[in-house]
Write a structure and sequence with these properties.
mainly alpha; 1 helix
Length: 87
């Protein structure tokens, strides 16, 4: 036997659907807010990563310059230049 839909049943179903749609819209809104926040956080992380790479590259340059200076100083200490043309 087929069930007949009464106006009361249809009204109740319409209310439930409306409520479900409101909840869905609220959930979508929260997700959009989270996506926006995550996008901003990713952007900030990428900026920080770029800054860290610049710092690392500068530190590597400084380390290489320090190594060269250290080698030069050690060479001068081990093999001092001649004084007054005499060794």
């Amino acid at each position: 036997m087929a069930q007949r839909w009464t106006d009361e049943m249809l009204d109740k179903m319409a209310e439930e659907n409306a409520h479900a749609f409101r909840e869905l819209r609220e959930a979508i809104s929260r997700l959009e807010t989270q996506v926006s926040a995550n996008t901003q956080a990713i952007h900030e992380l990428r900026e920080g990563q770029a800054m860290m790479m610049q710092i690392i590259m500068q530190q590597q340059t400084n380390i290489e310059e320090l190594r060269q200076d250290t080698r030069r100083i050690l060479d001068d200490l081990i093999n001092p230049p001649p004084m007054n043309g005499h060794r």
